[in-house]
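A further point concerns the way the authors explain their paired sequence and structure data. Since the whole study asks how a given chain folds, the encoding of that fold should be made plain. A single example would do more here than another paragraph of explanation. An entry of this sort, consisting of the sequence and the corresponding backbone structure tokens, reads as follows:

_____
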Amino acid sequence: MRLESVAKFHSPKSPMMSDSPRATASDSLSGTDVMAAMGMAQSQAGFGMAAFCGKHELSQNDKQKAINYLMQFAHKVSGKYRGVAKLEGNTKAKVLQVLATFAYADYCRSAATPGARCRDCHGTGLAVDITKTEQLGRVVEKECGRCKGVGYSRMPASAAYRAVTMLIPNLTQPTWSRTVK
């Protein structure tokens, strides 16, 4: 079973509301099978399942769980970053919360996110290679140079910087770039 197919079990297109028995094919999965697979995956990789389910908006609880997992990881590695390590307890926790939220928002971005679609390739990840098109006389596509074939732009670090400066007003851009970012 693929992880991508889990989302369709949470919002089926047409629920069957009848008293007729379901198909008896051996390869069909029941809701119990899917829930068992999700439970097993969640016990082995809790962060991955929470991030995936939150990204596909299956539950708000999963979004918050994924951000909490990111916070725990940020606390673990924050000693490596001078700008964060020297902050006091409450301020440090708030800054790490903001950074974890922005990291999760960046993970959740896609070409379908409003305002994130690449201006050059319009979300396809491919752009026309003008020089090869002129040489060959037919349309030749290449990986988009602006988005590197992803189809959307990443979350700008300047947005995270603005959010962090609300908590630490004396944080300068060079300090942000050298010690936090």
